[in-house]
Amino acid sequence: MPSYNAPLRDMRFVMDEVFDFAAGYQTHGLTDATPDLVDAVLEESAKFASEVLAPLNRTGDEEGCHFDNGVVTTPKGFKEAYQQYVDNGWAAMSGPVEFGGQGLPASLGLVVNEMTAAANYAWNMYPGLTHGCASAIRAHGSQEQKELYLNKLVPGHWTGTMCLTEPHCGTDLGLIKTRAVPQADGSYSVTGTKIFISSGEHDMAENIVHLVLAKLPDAPAGTKGISLFIVPKFLPDANGEKGERNGVVCGSIEHKMGIKASATCVMNFDGATGFLIGEVNKGLNCMFTMMNGARLGTGMQGLCHGEVSYQNAVAYAKDRLQMRSLSGPAEPEKPADPIIVHPDVRRMLLTMKAFNEGNRALAYYTAQLLDSAHYSQDEAVRANAEDQLAFLTPICKAFMTETGLEVTLLGMQVFGGHGYIREWGQEQQVRDCRIAPIYEGTNGIQALDLLGRKVLMSQGKLLRAFSKEVHLFCQANEGHAQFGEYFNKLTALNAQWGELTQKVAVKSMQNKEEVGAAAMDFLMFSGYVIHAFFWLKMAVVAQQKLEAGSSDAAFYQGKLATQEFYFKRLLPRAQAHVEALEAGADALMRMTADQF
Amino acid sequence: MPSYNAPLRDMRFVMDEVFDFAAGYQTHGLTDATPDLVDAVLEESAKFASEVLAPLNRTGDEEGCHFDNGVVTTPKGFKEAYQQYVDNGWAAMSGPVEFGGQGLPASLGLVVNEMTAAANYAWNMYPGLTHGCASAIRAHGSQEQKELYLNKLVPGHWTGTMCLTEPHCGTDLGLIKTRAVPQADGSYSVTGTKIFISSGEHDMAENIVHLVLAKLPDAPAGTKGISLFIVPKFLPDANGEKGERNGVVCGSIEHKMGIKASATCVMNFDGATGFLIGEVNKGLNCMFTMMNGARLGTGMQGLCHGEVSYQNAVAYAKDRLQMRSLSGPAEPEKPADPIIVHPDVRRMLLTMKAFNEGNRALAYYTAQLLDSAHYSQDEAVRANAEDQLAFLTPICKAFMTETGLEVTLLGMQVFGGHGYIREWGQEQQVRDCRIAPIYEGTNGIQALDLLGRKVLMSQGKLLRAFSKEVHLFCQANEGHAQFGEYFNKLTALNAQWGELTQKVAVKSMQNKEEVGAAAMDFLMFSGYVIHAFFWLKMAVVAQQKLEAGSSDAAFYQGKLATQEFYFKRLLPRAQAHVEALEAGADALMRMTADQF
User: For an engineered disulfide with A462, which of A153, A391, B187, B288 has Cβ 3.0 to 4.6 Å away?
Assistant: First the structure.
């Protein structure tokens, strides 16, 4: 039976020692988030994750969701765990105080979410999407809508969805066919079919609030004619409580590779009553509020599955006895040595550790930006944080899920044949993780978003802002006694980042396909550089602690060893992406469709 | 519903145009394999694969095998398909004539196996393992054993297994606990538990012949004390027919990530009657005969799943309409363009095509070596073929499965959200393929076998032999008008291959861990070089055909485009492996176990 223990030591290392979350809370006036409270939140959510959610992960996968005539039943224990989550205030933790939230920092919310999601990703989808739905209503809803829905969504009494995809369109939302016809009372009659709706129907909460993209009868064609509607499963009554049943039903649930305990629904809207949110024909903008959060959350999925896979792979590698170390028996009293002595097993474990911890550093850095964007009193700070978030979001989503998937595949491999057997749990991490590079915009779409919209459309501004941080860090550490060669490497990569961007920009003026042809390799290159940046940041801190005579030396030495491994054995991949990228579009475009 | 159509045009390109199988058949006196007969075999087996086996692939996955009190029931239709396979002589095709086989070339057997395995890998496991079992008996059994068992195994009336793994040992067979006690009549009483036994029990054939590794009571410790036994489910009676039930029963079947229709059994031997095969304590050598075949077969699994995934991904990419080409609408009369116009979709499809076809070339090259090793009249030719097989087997097993898995993961990605839904079939290819890098010796073990046993222990001889072929090919094409830059690249890589080997050899004299630390990157580098070699071979042929005015120009232009793509966008990865390899063992070994 696989297990999950929240890696609090690693998490605190990043929160407290690398980034100093506490200082940020002070700056932003988040005075409720005292060190004691943060400690208590971490300890308690770690317990909830490992004791309540983790034990339901394998059983949830085996049992899956059941569908019967419009009714969806979640696996045994899911509903009770959700009730506990709501009752103990976890749902409301980082929600706004005026709607029943506790107003704790977004960054702390992300950290807690890492634990609940790692323990049981499928379960976590239900509250996860609710946060996205609530934030869209908060950003774009009327005061009345906020009061009506946020008071229910923020504490988790009701859950939320986002209904975008239709059978014939996912990426290309301009093609949607769902129609919203204005009614005399100011509401809309919504009709159409949405697919792949996570948590579209379930038995965990008393009501479900759907955010639905639809077109008015006279809407312009394409994405400029899309509006966003609130379509609750039960219409709120005069007291804001669950009232009359609305015309939206679940038609079926999907049979999936993984996250089987998360209900993925076909939702049929048949003259359902909907309420416009935001302006007519500006629905896509509203939806993006929700999607950016969801993209960060999906990036976290790569870390979450990677972490669980790593924990169990390390335990297995220390326990499984097989062959002798080539350097001579490590444990001569046993029939064989634990496989963690073998260099190739270490290669796999170190790859997992390096990607996971690099991803955590990236995620927590981004979490601090969320705090700045939400809470800073300084407009310039807020604007800069928004810019950095815009730049980092597609990288978090795509790089964290690409590497997360690689980590889970390695975590199976460490187990040998047992990795393929369901009871051991490693293969579920792969199946559950495999959706992350696909949904919330495929990683190919993230790459286009990064290179096309974020980097090139800003004339390189967003890249330069981040790149400057890297530059200042390198400059401050030039000729570093311990890490000199690594700082030189990072300095060179950082310069190359800008040069590559220039080259693509020039080429794309002659051939528009160059951006699409370069995008994925550009994103992966960016990810490797960013991990290098964060690994050096972590190494510098670890080195300082060791020099100060820390009593936790093994922990910091592990960080230094992993930083060396990352630079020597993973970072070389960055140049393969450069070469592929520089090959340009011709090698992709010369094939005619019938030659495939 | 996914489909599979045997890619006969591609297969014939490699068989006829790149390697000239027919000439080999003439040289080896395989006169039965006339061009007409080969044609008929290809056409008929393609039909059997796509019409009989492929339709059972999804249903077999959904239904899985059922276990009830020692009895295993395969999915609906499996038994009937197997009967057809036996009745139509497919089982016996490349088996020895003296035992009911048709004596057709091993290479043709491999090609036919590509089709049946691609159509339904789980089903193909049942006959697949039988071939391995039969070849071990043929190589090491007594005349009596051959007559008794091969007459049943070769035509497929009985099936075979290989029983190596036990709960506490897979890679480290020296630890096995199964015991074989000599009996007065010359037989042995075999007792122990074997796990992960593919086709250990099923309902498709009337008897099952287990080859079992066990230790005599007085056997030396470790791998030098292992003997091999034939343990049939039913003991043959005086007429060689199925007789008395033997003391071996299936205790349970595993719940797996994929190949669910293949029964993976726990087999309990309880004083079962076994017959020694080969010499006492030489069991591991006998088993290697079987394993080498199985390793090639497992390498093919990477190609098979990759091919199916590619076929369906191309069909989807031509059919699915989403967004417009950045170069302007490709199909303006439709609501959007097919996604095959987008460069990033092409990047994925071309990666799939390049790896699949490179893998097919490698596999068919190896198949020709099988013919030479089996049938050549010339001892030197046979010895050289054996050497090359020894060298290429771990590369086929590991590189073809690593890349095959990558291909199936991309094949899911092309489908977007639909890739995650079981009905579409793409995710099954990933799940089924995922076992291939693990079983028959993990890819890490293959890498050690390649670098340690094959390359370094032969003092580089086996590598030099292959490398010389590459060298001669490059030399003959130096300054090639069309492919000059690619030949330069291959020449450089070929030289680097030898230099890397030297470096590791020198380092390993000081630190034994260097071989293990370098092995996986060395194997991957080797695979990329070998693919580059075969892609240039294919490109040269395609270019010649185009210059000769072939009417099949689109086909050959596709080959040229894919060769360019491979060199420009995939081959750069080789240098990342070089850098990682050259980083050496220290970055892996400095972590203490508790720092993980």
Answer: A391
Q: Quick check: B555 and A595 CB within 8 A?
A: yes
Whether residue A440 lies in the annotated active site: yes
Looking at the structure, do residues A186 and A260 belong to the same domain, yes or no? Answer: yes
pLDDT tens digits, one per residue of B520-553: 999 999 999 999 999 999 999 999 999 999 999 9
The one catalytic residue in B307, B440, B478, B547 is B440
- Residues B125 and B142: their CA atoms lie apart, in Å, by 26
| Torsion from C-alpha of A4, A5, A10, A14, nearest 10 degrees | 80
For A543, the 3-state DSSP assignment is helix
Instruction: Say how many domains are in chain A.
Output: 3
Side-chain half-sphere exposure of A593, counting CA atoms within 13 A? 15
- Chain B residues with beta carbon closer than 8 angstroms to that of A170: 322, 416-417
Q: Is residue B182 part of a domain?
A: yes
Is B222 in CB contact (< 8 Å) with chain A? Answer: no
Q: Which residues of A are less than 8 Å from B326 in CB distance?
A: 512-513, 515-516
Max CA pair span of chain A:
84
Within-domain flag for A345: no
Domain match, A171 and A133 both:
no
Note the pLDDT tens digit of each residue in A485-536.
999 999 999 999 999 999 999 999 999 999 999 999 999 999 999 999 999 9
Q: Write out the residue range of the structural domain in which residue B547 sits.
A: 442-587
pLDDT of residue A482 exceeding 80: yes
ipTM over 0.90: yes
Q: Tokens 């469709």, residue?
A: A593
Query: B492-523: string of b/e by CB count within 10 Å (b at 16+)?
Result: ebbeebeebbebbbebbeeebbbbbbbbbbbb
CATH code of the domain in which B239 resides = 2.40.110.20
Compute the distance between CA of residue A235 and CA of residue A185 in angstroms, rounded to an integer. Answer: 14
Between residues 329 and 348 of chain A, which touch chain B (CB distance below 8 Å)? 335-336, 338, 340-348
Asked if B416 lies within 8 A of A587 by C-beta distance, the reply is no
Q: Do residues B126 and B215 share a domain? A: no
Is residue A396 a contact partner of residue A299, using CB atoms and an 8 Å limit?
yes
Which chain B positions have a beta carbon within 8 Å of A572's beta carbon?
575-576, 578-580
Distance of CA B215 to the CA centre of its chain: 29
Q: Clarify whether residues A166 and A118 are in a common domain.
A: no
Copy the structure tokens of residue A85.
């989550």
Which pLDDT belongs to residue A289? 76
CA distance B299 to chain A (A): 16
Kindly write down the DSSP assignment for every residue of A154-187, as one continuous string.
Answer: TTTSEEEEEE--BTTBSS-GGG---EEEE-TTS-
Query: B326 and A516 in contact by Cβ < 8 A?
Result: yes
Q: Do B76 and B201 lie in a common domain? A: no
Give residues 41 to 60 of A whose Cβ lies within 8 Å of B.
Answer: none
Specify whether B446 is located in the same domain as B582. yes
Cβ proximity of B175 and B167 under 8 Å: no
Query: Is the domain of B448 the same as that of B577?
Result: yes
CATH of the domain at B43: 1.10.540.10
A218 in any annotated domain: yes
Task: Using CB atoms, pick whichever of A175, A343, A515 lies closest to residue B589.
Answer: A343
Same domain, B115 and B238: no
Q: Do the domain assignments include residue A488? A: yes
**A591/B558 touch (CB, cutoff 8 Å), yes or no:** yes
Interface of A with B in 427-456 (CB under 8 A): 427, 430-431, 434-435, 437-439, 442-444, 447-448
Could you say which DSSP state residue B244 is in? E
Q: Which of A87, A116, A143 is the last residue of a domain?
A: A143
Write out the E strands in B254-398.
Answer: 264-277
Q: Do A256 and B434 touch (CB under 8 A)?
A: no
Question: Which of B340, B413, B568 has the CB atom closest to A593's CB atom?
Answer: B340
